[in-house]
Amino acid sequence: MWWSEPTMFPNDKPATPRTRRAFLGTTATATLLALAGCTGDGGSGSEPTETTTATESPMTTTEEPTTTDEPMGNPDVPILNYALTLEHLENAFYRDGLETFSDDELMEADSLSMFGERIRREVPEYLAVIGEHEAAHVEALTKTVEDLGGTAVKEGTYDFGYETPSEFLGVAKALENTGVAAYAGAAPSVVSNDILSAAAGIHSVEARHASFLNLVNGDSPYPKAVDEASTMTEVLDIAGGFITSEVDPSVYETNEMSRPEPDRKMDDGTTDVDVLNYALTLEHLENAFYRDGLEEFSPDEIASASALSDFGETFRSNIHEHLQQVGAHEAAHVEALTKTVEEFDGTPVEEATYDFGYETPSEFLGVAKALENTGVAAYAGAAPSVTSDAVFSAALGIHSVEARHASFLNELNATSPFPDGVDESKSMDEVVEIASQFIVSD
């Protein structure tokens, strides 16, 4: 794994100071949130957000889009069409599968036999929410490609090969985990920061989906401390196993010779060491939280938490182990980020002292949920300011793992694992204000 390498990013040098660019609040993110604002908690979404007008494009601003002299026009269109190809596939998968199997058939899937009624009852509902998310992603990406002057790829025809509800759940797991790797692999090439911010919000939602589907398939919701990225070729090879119609590979081609540098490489007054230390501050906090909390509460005390009373005994008995895995991930993130700051000739921030305010296992689980969801928003907000491609790619791998953690912690706290179709971002200032509530000394 990348944190065990002697030199994480050997080919990168510390970034030069840049002029600070606004992290969030772009029309890109606002419009995607409006389009994909379906929720997983009975229809109650997040706080209202400002949306664009009907004539504005998702993932664009009022500025003229970046263009090149290459025939394909806007340099982000091929990447958007690549994402749209995957979203079409996922949208068709859930739409058709949920017409094939009834709620009762899904609840009685053989692969769910290890779970109690609570999770089995949630599966049809959450699959429907995931399907709504994928449909919203298709709508947003299609409109964006067209508004940038491109031709959006159309839905193909597919054969997903499932025959039973359990097989359907297995394919769903494979598709969502592939989606996580696909967004991570493509994001470093995105030119527009507005598109990048919105894509990061979809990336983490795909990870939330994958976490839940891993869980109901009997696998770890978050198998690694850092998610791997896949190349476009690797992902299209996987997708090709389900696509039975013709695919024109030219729609994904980019002219790398004339492709502009990504916006995130422009000056904004923030160095990569600044961003790394910001992330390290949050990882120190999370690491201390799990380390101390899991020493304070035994496995039996966690399993007996009142917040978990609706879950089956077997599931509850495994939660302490799941939380230990989250803690191990946060410790690995601390180690990796510390080493990377040093290799960039920076001084890593040190662990502070904290007061998390919990007194019971249920309160501990509630704080865990808040911390993980804040981590998702923090990484998404900081991504557009990272210059180094290697640091950026590794940060995306942590971003999606934080989303996997958040999905699981939401589930434990009776909240939708994926409450929105696109995750929100938060600026450094917003996140530091939240984190400072727990920090009692620097």
Please characterize this protein's 3D structure.
The structure is a single chain. The protein has 442 residues and is mostly helical. It has one domain. The protein is 54% helix and 1% strand. It contains 14 helices and two strands; from the N terminus they run αααααααααααβαααβ. A two-stranded antiparallel ribbon has the order 1-2. Helix 2 runs antiparallel to helix 4.
In what range is the share of β-strand residues?
under 5%
Uncertain regions spanning at least 5 consecutive residues: 1-72
Q: Structural class, please?
A: mainly alpha
Sheet with most strands? 2 strands, antiparallel
Give the tags.
mainly alpha; flat; disordered N terminus
Describe this structure in a few short sentences:
This protein has 442 residues and is an all-alpha fold. The protein is 54% helix and 1% strand.
Helices and strands, with pairings:
Blueprint: H1 27-35, H2 77-100, H3 103-107, H4 117-147, H5 165-186, H6 193-216, H7 232-240, H8 272-296, H9 299-303, H10 313-317, H11 319-343, E1 353-354, H12 361-382, H13 389-412, H14 428-435, E2 439-441
Antiparallel strand pairs: 1-2
Helix pairs in contact: 1-6, 2-4, 2-5, 5-6, 5-7, 6-12, 6-13, 8-11, 8-12, 12-13, 12-14
